[in-house]
Amino acid sequence: MSTPxxxxxxxxxxxxxxxxxRLLQTGAPLVALYFAVLGFFDYSMHQPPExxxxxxxxxxxxxxxxxxxxxxxxSA
Length: 76
Prior knowledge:
The chain has 76 residues and is an all-alpha fold. It has one domain (4-75). Helices cover 82% and strands 0% of the residues. It contains 4 helices and no strands. It has helices at 4-45, 49-56, 62-66, 69-75.
């Protein structure tokens, strides 16, 4: 005979499994996109200043908050 406690635990593990699946389905592509854009900015920083400025004139202020531009600039 199942008690309400064991029934709830079964439901929680099913809910956790769904949560983890959704996290992997959305989180993994977002992490891949972040590193792809990070690589693009790093590549553009290693170009001549005119090329880099042409890239950055199309970018708003948000990437400066999301990516480590100062660290990348020091290595470029």
